[in-house]
Design brief:
By secondary structure, the protein is mainly alpha-helical. The protein has one domain: ABC transporter involved in vitamin B12 uptake, BtuC (Orthogonal Bundle). The protein is built from 12 helices and 4 strands, in the order E-H-H-H-H-H-E-E-H-H-H-H-H-H-H-E. It has a two-stranded antiparallel sheet. The protein has a two-stranded antiparallel sheet with strand order 2-3. It is globular and about 55 Å long.
Length: 347
């Protein structure tokens, strides 16, 4: 046996999680402080800000939740879902139908909001589980068609259902008279929770399995990763936050129109994910803000020309940046890195 130096093989380098620069408890404390600060900010905005721009900010927050939750499915896990509006509709109608009959007052309002948002998210994630188990064995175009069909099924059920037991759904005429209790605070509290949860899933040890499914599902399965489990998990988690966003939308709008949850709504959310960069959470946030604000700024054009100009801008953006605004990168540093090969000391 030789006693010469041993050289580390390239295969010894491995993907791991570096130690965070800021302790986790400091990050959690900062997030708690951010949630607390949102309340006085909401009061100041309600008093001094133009209601039109405040409404745009709230809609941006709802779209951020939808885009980030879909990015977990389409970008990070590499699936292609076209039924996200269906999950949003389930959350919206679950929350709106109950709030239509139960109008909480006083200290019960915050409790009711949190409980109904969670309930709407649970119902949406249950639907994601039901549709996910049989369809996520499909890939590519077949999965897209299956999820598109699911969204249309939800829309068809809504327009043909007037009542579920004693609860009014509204059918094709929509659901009206929902108490307006959501505001900037509740919307961006939901945004913070959604972004933090998806971020910590994506940039964790479990997140490596989600990304492995995206890169090469066959190779991931050969390495022992249960690809169906991770695909369904991404679908269920994404559906949950889409349902929460739908609940916020119902409690902010006060009215629900079934036509607002059709294929075009799902397509808008997909465009946000693609424009921001599939796999980039901060890219989805940027794209959601841009694609919510931009159509409002194009209202000086007539309806037809506004959509033509808007579409040309999107086409130009995708030609110049085919990978999206950020590609798969983030705006700030993450904890993931490649460790360099380790060279053992010569024996």
């Amino acid at each position: 046996m030789t006693n010469g130096p041993m050289t580390a093989l390239p295969s010894e380098s491995r993907l791991s999680l570096a130690q965070p620069r800021v302790p986790v408890w400091v990050v959690n404390l900062g997030l708690t402080a951010l949630l607390a600060v949102l309340w006085p900010i909401d009061r100041l905005m309600a008093e001094y800000m133009d209601p039109y721009f405040l409404r745009i900010l709230v809609l941006i927050g709802i779209n951020v939740m939808l885009a980030v939750s879909l990015n977990l499915i389409n970008g990070i896990t590499g699936q292609f879902s076209l039924g996200h509006a269906g999950f949003m509709a389930i959350g919206a109608y679950t929350t709106g139908t109950i709030m239509h009959y139960w109008r909480p007052e006083g200290p019960m309002i915050p409790v009711a909001i949190v409980a109904l948002l969670i309930l709407g998210g649970v119902f949406a994630s249950a639907a994601g589980l039901v549709i996910g188990i049989p369809t996520l064995r499909l890939r590519g175009d077949y999965l897209a068609i299956a999820t598109l069909g699911f969204g249309e099924i939800i829309y068809t059920l809504i327009i043909n259902t007037e009542y579920i037991g004693p609860l009014r759904v509204g059918g094709a005429s929509g659901l009206h008279g929902i108490p307006i209790v959501a505001n900037f605070f509740w919307t961006y509290a939901g945004v913070v929770v959604c972004v933090v949860c998806v971020w910590r899933i994506a940039y964790s040890a479990k997140g490596m399995a989600f990304r492995a499914v995206r890169e090469d599902e066959v190779a991931a399965a050969a390495m022992g990763i249960d690809t169906t489990y991770y695909k369904v998990s991404a679908f269920v988690i994404g559906a949950f936050f889409s349902g929460v966003a739908g609940g916020l939308f119902a409690m902010y709008q006060g009215n629900l129109d079934p036509a607002g949850f059709r294929f075009m709504r799902s397509f808008e959310i997909v465009v946000m994910v693609v424009l921001g960069g599939q796999g980039s959470i901060t890219g989805s946030i940027l794209a959601a803000a841009i694609l919510t604000y931009l159509p409002e700024q194009l209202r000086f054009l007539s309806g037809v020309w506004r959509m033509i100009f808007y579409s040309i801008l999107l086409i130009g953006m995708m030609l110049l940046r085919p990978g999206g605004l950020l590609g798969s990168r983030e705006l700030w540093w993450t904890r993931r890195r490649i460790e360099p090969p380790r060279h053992p000391v010569a024996s």
